[in-house]
Each structure stands twice: as C-alpha cells, then as structure tokens.
Amino acid sequence: MNTIFRNSPLPRYYQLKEIMREKILSGEWKPGDLIPSERELSEQYGISRMTARQAITELVNEGLFYREQGRGTFVSRNRITQQLTKLTGFNEDMRARGYKPGTKVLSARLWPADETVAAHLHIRPGDKVFRLHRLRMADDDPLALETSFVSFIGCEKLLEDDLNNYSLYYLLETKYGYPPLEADQELEAGLVGSEEARLLRIAVGSPVLYIRRTTYTERKQPIEYAASIYSGHKYTFYAHLHREQLISK
C-alpha cells in the first residue's frame, strides 16, 4: 500500500499512518532516518498538512517516530532497557548493552543544599554539597540529563576530577572509599521543557521520565541524591515482579 484512496472508508490520516508504518517494517525507513516533512508528505500524497501532521503525531505517540526540535521527525531507534532491580552506573550500564557511553559536564560546583536535597542526604539545609549537572549519551545520542548532589567530607575534591571521562560511581568507590551499594528510586512521567528539550534534541512537550534516586554507601549512609530526565522514546525501565502467596481468601 503506497497510495491514499479517496473513496476508502478509512480516514486519510490512517491510510498515511499505515503507509509510513510499512516503510519502517520493510526497512525502507531505518532507525535514525529523517522522514519527509508535513509539506512533502502532503504534496506527495495529495492530502492536507493537517492530515499529515495527525498521522505523524500518532506514530510519535506509538513510539515509532520521535521529534527533534529544529531538525524534524526521525524513525525511532531501538530503546535501551534497564532493569529496576540492580544498581548500576550509567557508563557500565551502557557498555553492558554494547553502547559507547558519553558524558558532557554542563556544570560542576559546590552548592548550598536546599530542603529537598538536605532531607535526602541527611544533612542541614545550606550545607555545601558537590553539584554535578551532566548530559549523558549513548553512541553520541543524547539520552538523559542528570543532576547529582554528593555529600561527604572532602567532596569538594571532586572539582579536580575529570568527570567527562570517569564515572562518578567509579571515583566514589575507588578514590574516595564510598562504594555505592543500594538506592531508593522514584519514576514519574512528564513532558519536557524548552531548555531540557534543546539539550536532549527533542521537541518541547515530548514525553520524558523524571527519575529521582538516593544512593547509599555502607551503613545506609546517603552519598548521592540525583534528579534525572530520560528521553521517553529512547529508554525503557523494566522490573520483574513477584507476588507473595496468599495465606487466606
């Protein structure tokens, strides 16, 4: 099917959607390919731009396409899946999946803890913590924005470390003697704002996952509180659930 039939009972946007779906399934459009614009599709198939926009939007919502602000709409790549039952650093997680991890440090500084950060790190509001804001990538593709707040005696020494090329967890464990051992993590769905969309190269309002994690070292001492934004069309979290056997009806 590569034609819009005007006398068909199927809506024209639906016909176009199925044409584009077939191009993906057949391999004609490959992951990462830029698809034709709304104007090009409307001219090619003799439909309105509004109809083309509706077809594209539905495939974006299904996860087959994703939009990058100022660049266009692309065929989605295979999603990266992470289990929720194991604590791993970003770099080791990407390498285990065959991707080349990348990090761009956007800022690194000492920061007075606000009430939220202080509560998670068991310190007082206003106490100085090391604040690290990073863009995380897989095969040079922006995947997540991550802001970490780290608290331990001497945490200011992290300002001297090369955090573009060394994992924070690796440094905490091997250089500073604070191995990350366990964590509490929350996930929340949301829509991305303009600045985050620019850095992640996705459209404003795209679906994202907001993740908040408190990581503990020995004796349940909190060592890091992190707030991250993951691009919704590139990342999937997976958990295996076990139901306790019922004792009574």
Characterization of the model:
It is a single chain. With 249 residues, the protein is α+β, with helices and mostly antiparallel strands. The chain has two domains: 12-75, Winged helix-like DNA-binding domain superfamily/Winged helix DNA-binding domain (Arc Repressor Mutant, subunit A, Orthogonal Bundle); 80-238, Chorismate lyase-like (Chorismate lyase, 3-Layer(aba) Sandwich). It is 25% helix and 32% strand. It has seven helices and ten strands. The strands form three sheets. A six-stranded antiparallel β-sheet has the order 4-5-6-9-8-7. It has a two-stranded antiparallel sheet with strand order 1-2. Strand 5 (128-138) and strand 6 form a beta hairpin. Helix 1 packs across helix 3 (49-61) and helix 2 crosses helix 3. The mean pLDDT is 88.
Keywords:
249 residues, alpha+beta, Arc Repressor Mutant, subunit A, Chorismate lyase, 10 strands, 25% helix, DNA-binding, transcription, transcription regulation, DNA binding
Mean pLDDT: 88
Spell the H/E element sequence: HHHEEEHEHEEHEHEEE
The CATH topology label of the largest domain is Chorismate lyase
Instruction: Report the span from N to C terminus.
Output: 54 Å
Shape descriptor reads elongated
The unreliable regions are: none
How many structural domains can be distinguished in the coordinates?
2
List the helices and strands and how they pair.
Blueprint lengths: L11 H14 L12 H8 L3 H13 L3 E4 L3 E4 L4 E4 L6 H7 L4 E12 L2 H7 L6 E11 L2 E10 L17 H7 L7 E10 L2 H7 L6 E10 L5 E10 L3 E4 L11
